[in-house]
Amino acid sequence: MQIGNSVVAVTGAASGIGRALAATFAAGGARVVLGDIDTAGLAATAESIGAAGGDVRTLRVDAASAADLEAMIATAERDFGPIDVFVANAGIIGGPGLGTEADWDRILEVNLRAHIRAATLLVPTWQQRGHGHFVAVASAAGLLTQIGAAGYAVTKHAAVGFAEWLAVTYGDDGIGVTCVCPMGVDTPLLTAIRESDDADARVAADSVVSAGAVVTAQQVAELTVAAVADGSFLVLPHPEVRDMAIGKITDPDRWIHGMRRYQRSLRG
User: Fold this and answer.
1) How many CB atoms lie within 10 A of CB 238?
2) Are the C-beta atoms of residues 27 and 50 closer than 8 Å to each other?
3) Contact 146, 193 (CB under 8 A)
4) What is the pLDDT of residue 267?
5) Is residue 2 a part of any domain in this protein?
6) What does the pLDDT read at residue 208?
7) In a domain, 256, yes or no
8) Does residue 262 have an active-site annotation?
């Protein structure tokens, strides 16, 4: 995938990883459409990219809304041309613990079904064109788990599984897929759960920041854009996640007992 002069759409672009991805793609010569429900943050992202010479468009997008995704795609096609790279970045931590029915409804919509809806809208066109690239910003929780937040753990596993399925099913049609699985990233999302009044949420945050270094959103963005350019599937900003995942698969009972010990130490 050639980044220069490509058309890129990024959901959740108002802050964090989404903002960094949008800026990094733009710096590489891409024309970028930014979507988010946070319109003030979206304007700040656009202003920053524009000041650096980037060409961007913005619109309010709830990634869980098929109509909003259709509007995002239409905006890109009207102003720039067909989308070459779609970045499904928008995500939420969801309710702590087991969560409520409403918590599950919302997190499934944002963290999983948003990816499915975007792919459903884009894949037929990409098949006709013979190229396109889907970026799923998931989490190391999708390869391991997330202490303290069942909804987050389950939906990130599902996002990884969906990305794998896309790569297998449509790779021969020229469609690339990149799946991004970091641990701790210095974003407003991590800050919010670290400062939460809920004990389970704080344990979830502690499990992330204690497991490895907290990297910057820019580091994640640079690795991701490089992977898109190379056509690589898995992005691990924390390389140690690979060994953790191997250990989990090799001896799941040992891994589960180890995670329980880790959880006890955090709660203690």
Assistant:
1) 19
2) no
3) no
4) 85
5) no
6) 78
7) yes
8) no
Closest to 108 measured CA to CA, from 95, 122, 121? 95
Asked if residue 252 is part of any domain, the answer here is yes
**Confidence at residue 201, expressed as pLDDT on a 0 to 100 scale:** 76
Domain containing residue 96: 7-267
- In the set 25, 126, 134, 152, the catalytic residue is 152
Alpha carbons 251 and 256: distance in angstroms, whole number: 9
The whole-number pLDDT of residue 188 equals 81
- Helix then strand then coil, in percent of the chain rounded to 5, is 60, 15, 25
Q: Please give the helix or strand (H or E) that residue 20 lies within, else none.
A: helix 16-27
| Alpha carbon distance 63, 104 (integer Å) | 16
Task: Please say whether the beta carbons of 88 and 118 come within 8 A.
Answer: yes
Q: Which residues on adjacent β-strands are paired with residue 10? A: 34, 87
Do 137 and 91 meet the contact criterion of CB atoms below 8 Å apart? yes
Sorted by sequence, the CB contacts under 8 Å of residue 236 that are 6+ apart come out as 140, 181, 182, 242
| pTM assigned to the model | 0.94
The structural domain count of the chain equals: 1
Quick count: other Cβ atoms within 10 Å of Cβ 47? 12
**The three-state (H, E, C) secondary structure of 50-81, written as one string:** HHCCCEEEEEECCCCCHHHHHHHHHHHHHHCC
Q: Are 247 and 47 in contact (CB under 8 A)?
A: no
pLDDT recorded at residue 230: 97
- 1 falls within a domain: no
Q: Each residue of 217-267: pLDDT tens digit?
A: 999 999 999 999 999 999 999 999 999 999 999 999 999 999 999 999 888
What parts of the chain have a pLDDT lower than 70?
195
CB atoms within 10 A of CB 162: 21
Query: Residue 80's domain is classified under what CATH number?
Result: 3.40.50.720
| Residue whose entry in the numeric block shows the structure tokens 């350019």 | 229
Q: What is the enclosing helix (H) or strand (E) of 184?
A: none
